[in-house]
């Protein structure tokens, strides 16, 4: 069963001046539990594609069905709620709220969802433990390394129990040790909790871990490769 089904998706920037076809007639499906890398040269449309799937940007035309629901038909406020409840985001610059601690950053979305204080605390604590930060709960982002901040971001992305997590170049600002650690955590969450991850990357070590690699070029899918990945580290 596909959780994401995309039909003839187009995104044209600046349609009235100098049009840029960032995404050009893309049709593709993603299944529950996939661990997918989107790769391709800079400017090939990876970020635009992730932003469209995540409802952060509107397509020029085409359909994006998430669990059968066409998100391009949602009103602005419905889309905000849908995003919050069903999609986890990880960005290359971590995008944590600087005045909040690690735990508060993870609790924040759950509080917006109206969950009890106790549930927010328990889930944030357990998610941060699962990304190896059990002893950093009360630190603010500036007191954490880049790798630790990105692990907070992964915990935050999972807080709402999303259907899938979108990550745009999640390791772009990490050193090789932090990259390997983050990938291990994402893989473990993928295998243990069947969390669906779709991430864009330029990093060969990240690409090597993907079970599916989608190659973008000029806004189109050039290749879509599924493969067995050995679980040995
Ligand atoms: P990638 O993530 O693969 O680097 P992007 O999705 O960022 O690719 O960009 C795809 C194309 O769309 C590029 O030609 C880029 O310059 C253009 N583009 C991206 N965002 C905008 C925007 N906000 N306005 C105009 N053009 C854009
Ligand atoms: P990435 O490689 O991660 O896609 P980029 O450097 O291509 O990052 O883009 C960074 C930001 O600049 C994005 O938010 C994108 O939408 C915007 N952008 C990219 N190209 C253009 C463009 N030609 N005009 C306006 N904004 C753009």
Overview of the structural elements:
With 233 residues, the chain is an alpha/beta fold. The protein has a domain at 2-94 and 161-226: 3-Layer(aba) Sandwich (Rossmann fold), CATH 3.40.50.300. Helices cover 33% and strands 27% of the residues. The protein has seven helices and ten strands. The protein has helices at residues 46-53, 76-86, 102-112, 117-130, 146-158, 176-192, 204-207; strands at 2-13, 20-31, 35-39, 61-66, 69-70, 87-90, 164-168, 197-200, 212-217, 220-226. α3 (102-112) packs parallel to α5 (146-158) and α5 packs parallel to α6 (176-192). Bound molecules: adenosine-5'-diphosphate (2 copies). Residues 13-14, 20, 22, 40, 42-48 line the site of one adenosine-5'-diphosphate (ADP). Pfam families: ABC_tran. One of its GO terms (cellular component) is membrane protein complex.
């Amino acid at each position: 069963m596909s959780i994401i089904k995309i039909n003839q998706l187009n995104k044209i920037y600046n349609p009235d001046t100098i049009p840029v076809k960032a995404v050009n007639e893309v049709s593709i499906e993603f299944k529950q539990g996939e661990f997918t890398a989107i790769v391709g040269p800079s400017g090939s449309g990876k970020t635009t594609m992730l932003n469209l799937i995540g409802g952060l940007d509107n397509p020029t035309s085409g359909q994006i069905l998430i669990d059968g629901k066409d998100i391009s038909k949602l009103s602005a406020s419905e889309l905000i709620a849908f995003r919050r409840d069903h999609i986890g985001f990880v960005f290359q610059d971590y995008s944590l709220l600087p005045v909040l601690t690690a735990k508060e950053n993870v609790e924040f979305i759950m509080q917006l969802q109206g969950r009890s204080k106790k549930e927010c605390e328990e889930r944030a604590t357990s998610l941060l433990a699962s990304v190896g930060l059990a002893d950093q709960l009360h630190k603010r982002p500036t007191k954490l390394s880049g790798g630790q901040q990105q692990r907070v971001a992964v915990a935050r992305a999972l807080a709402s129990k999303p259907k899938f997590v979108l990550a745009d170049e999640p390791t772009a600002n990490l050193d090789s040790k932090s990259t390997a650690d983050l990938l291990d955590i994402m893989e473990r969450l993928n295998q243990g909790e069947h969390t669906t991850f779709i991430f864009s990357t330029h990093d060969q070590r990240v690409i090597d871990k993907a079970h599916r690699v989608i190659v973008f070029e000029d806004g189109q899918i050039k290749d879509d490769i599924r493969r067995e990945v050995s679980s040995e580290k």
